Amino acid sequence: MEPTARGLYRAKEFAAKAGVTVRTLHFYDRIGLLVPTAREANGYRLYSDADLERLEQILALAFVGFELDRIKRLLAGPPLPLEVALRLQRTIIAQEKHRLELALAAIDEAESSLARADESERWQAVAHVIKVFKMQNDYNWTENYYSPEGREKLAEMRRTTPHETVEAGERAWAELIAEVEAAAANGTEPASEAGRALAQRWCDLVRAFTQDDPDVSAGLNQLWSDQTHWPTGFKRPWSDAADAFITAAKAARG
Amino acid sequence: MEPTARGLYRAKEFAAKAGVTVRTLHFYDRIGLLVPTAREANGYRLYSDADLERLEQILALAFVGFELDRIKRLLAGPPLPLEVALRLQRTIIAQEKHRLELALAAIDEAESSLARADESERWQAVAHVIKVFKMQNDYNWTENYYSPEGREKLAEMRRTTPHETVEAGERAWAELIAEVEAAAANGTEPASEAGRALAQRWCDLVRAFTQDDPDVSAGLNQLWSDQTHWPTGFKRPWSDAADAFITAAKAARG
DNA sequence: GATAGGCCATGACGTAACGTCAAGGTCAAG
DNA sequence: CTTGACCTTGACGTTACGTCATGGCCTATC
User: What pLDDT, in 10s, does the model give residues A121-134?
Assistant: First the structure.
């Protein structure tokens, strides 16, 4: 029948198995995200079951909103960043969801105000109502915690920091958080030598992230401590127990 | 001082007032969405307070997710489509929100399964968990109500129908819905002459939308009647009272 | 042996909503 | 006369592909 008997599939068949289009496969191949295991002599792509597994991982990560470029690096890198990446992605999704909730509420409000408005001011009515909701979060509630200078510096840092640095930082955070979680779980004293060492590393990482800028670190501190104003669904990337531990350990360092 | 004293602003000042960038103003100008009231002799853009009002309307509609091209037509067109457009947009946002909720739940599940998985199968664990959530809605829960043929035909229709037709349809729906709401509110008998006339128009519009295709209309009917499975936040673009009225009126027509 | 039809390939261009960069014009202050 | 702040337009980059267009490969059929 087909020349693709033992676990190898040509483009169309493979695409159908995975639920994507052939053009998507071409694209993933070109950007190096999913290169087919082999090619036939005539150049036809041949995909294996291992390729299918990788594609499913890709699609899973894409579903939770990762960019393809990010997915490529996640799949290539060491295993640790996965946890951290998922947690960070969670906060992004939670923010987007919050934005959509505001938009929904804004539409509902706009509809009823539209019913009350007379012909001439319909647009103003809608614009006004939505503007109110828009300003409620201004697209990015975290920014409210920073001073204008802090905001600018943060944006600047985000633009200029290369992603290797970002990922190294994420890895460092992941390791430290894991250790803090473990310490909190096994009853280590926050004020002990080990606890204070963890607190030291924590503060060092914060300083590395904020690049020692007071405007940025002030906003960051407020953001994390003002739990009552977080949007629904937003979480710290570490547990309450770990938070209590590290807070106590930092205090013990004085 | 500036040459822009009496209610006219140059690009930077105007952008600051409205909270957008100058480049955005350039872009809106080029696509004809917001053309400045005037130009100075040297070609500098001059914006008026009326421009600011329009820009605020644009930003409001953009906040609830309308595309710029759509916004342009909404602001140009007759007032009626605004209500309908808002209601339709609501369902889209509600769907997106639902998707994000699934993604959040998927991440939470993935995290805990990640804690249980050993090194070698971490990726499979995550991919598997997320795949489950992904399939729960398959990006588009409405499609579950259609047969494969119905889905294809719907997609085909969406590709080929020009937006003027779509908007004419929306206007027709808006008018009809408004009349049905009114009839339901003022106690008109569904079985009366007027009620059956409304039902007739309703069925005609459905036939126009489905283009008389049985696969499409079957799916559509199931979708609207299976209220218990709608995602949270999803609503009919008409009230329960109107729904009861039109159902009874259709029944009266036999 | 020619041809029709199905699958495959690559490459160019389009999408949405701008950001970024580049090259250059305008104008008031020093 | 230069500096610096502001303005202009145009070209290109971004994301994740879809949509042609063109042409090769291969098999079945006439």
Answer: 777 777 887 877 77
